[in-house]
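haha ok so turns out i had the wrong file open the whole time. this is the CORRECT one, sorry everyone. sequence first:
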Amino acid sequence: MLSSKRLLAGLCSLMMLTVTGCSNYNSPVITQQSEQTEISLSWWGNDGRNQYTIEAVEEFERLHPDIKVNCSYSEWSGYEARARVQMISDTEADVMQINYGWISQYSPDGLGYYDINDLYEDFAIENFSEDVLRYGIVDGHQNAIPIAMNAETVYINKTIYDKYGLDVPKTWDDLFKAASVMSKDGIYPLSAAAKSMWLYLIAYTEQAQHKTFLKSDGSLNFNAADFQVMIEFYKRLVDEKVFPQVDFYERVQLDNELYAGSVAWISDAQNYFGTAIENGREIVAADYTTIDGKNPGEGWYAKPATMYAVSKNTEHPKEAGMLLDFLMNSSEMAVLQGIEKGIPLSSSAKRAIESEGLLTGIQYEASQVMENCENLSELNPVLEKSGLIDDFFATANDVMYEVTPVEDACNAFVEKIRNDYF
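then structure:
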């Protein structure tokens, strides 16, 4: 929302004024037509993210009074659909938060976004290592810059585990042991929403079958027998009450302490466990689950949490580069954002939050688990395709409810996804 302070200042201007806005592309703010260059920024997030980003934009405008930033933001639901329409119609924001998978989806030739290499005068790209920058490169074009890295993480409410005299689990056998104790009280040792469960099951199956889900060229490596292992293991997890079935997963049960933990992204740590931490519960980021407790991270994946890109259609690349630099490299934005999106990959941003003592808490602990693990693989965006995940759980349900024999279901599933996704 537009601050009353800025509105008052605008109303006092002696010049003829035009209305634009930071809360929405079309909502009114005050700008001077003859003085200001207008650019746009879009992102998704909750109220907290919206608030600190708006504060950052206001600070950027204060530092650069010749630039006006019009903002558009919403929850994730609907953001991608709207962004897709905007990119197709060439009406997207000059600077935009994008998902990692969008690069391959919307810029397979590297020409779908502005080449950030061309913004070198206004964007300090040297704050990012080559290992980080490669996530946003397509055919030599720097399409986007990662804000932070992300990985699925096992979060455990240690307070609950301590109550039952159980150690923090390292293996799947540890979880089955916990379920045999907790289930009598209606408590699940762990939980996961559909995408997290899908990736968790992939981790187990890769370890059990000694093969990766995808080949190095991105083609499907799992066959019907591998998916049978995956589905049967999921059924066992549900039947023995290690996990609730994804169809009935409710995040609120973490607060109600009917789930003693969850598999979730690093970036979701505070959203999932903030209430438990406020209530004095000890939440820990556990090692990545393995079959034998060795080589944690095998079968697990990491990816950029979110990224910023610049529109290929921007009419103001210099100003867009300046805004991008402020969002990713400035101490002002770094301190406002903290580690809400993960540990910043920008060296200057990380120094700023470190000097402010902000590298603490469960999200930071989860980031440290990720950074200290040498066995994580890079997540291929195809593994996050919602249709693929939905098709898997529909197939799993057919097996679990005895609609289709498991072998027939898995054969049909492989044929379908090869046709639809590979």
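Residues 1-21, 23-33 have pLDDT under 50 and may be disordered.
again sry for the mixup
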